[in-house]
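During the no-cost extension, the postdoctoral fellow (Dr. R.K.) reprocessed legacy sequence entries with the updated structure-token encoder. One reprocessed record is reproduced below for audit purposes.
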Amino acid sequence: MTTPNQLRELLAALNELQSTVARALAVPASTSDDPLVDLLARSQALVLAHPAESAGLVQGLAAIGRRHAATPEGAALLSGLLASAEVTELRAAWEAITLNLLDEVVPSGSIPAAWVDLMLDGAAAAHIAEAAESLRPDGFAG
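Re-encoded structure tokens follow.
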């Protein structure tokens, strides 16, 4: 089972890695005073600014993880991680950072369907708000 100290060490290592990459790519700092929120916001900015690179990195790390999980030691670690409440919480952070845009493997030069869905959702939401506003009677505060 993953211990709180191991999770803190992992978070510190991820924060250091993310800060190094963000500086190299000139990603602006978050406006949050909370270091965790700052880490998540900067990570999300990196994913959105560099989707192909992010997807490639995630696919590479996932392949390494799958190879390790095929070993007895890796299988034991995977079993412990899957039973961990902390991993469930980390999944929520992952989804917030990536907006589930990195889960799909796509050929080089292609646009992931999740990106198209996100763009259509954004366009639809803007249109819905505009349409709803046009239905509001003059002088009626919303």
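The chain has two domains: 4-104, 111-142. Residues 113-135 form the longest helix (23 residues). The remaining legacy entries will be reprocessed before the final report is submitted.
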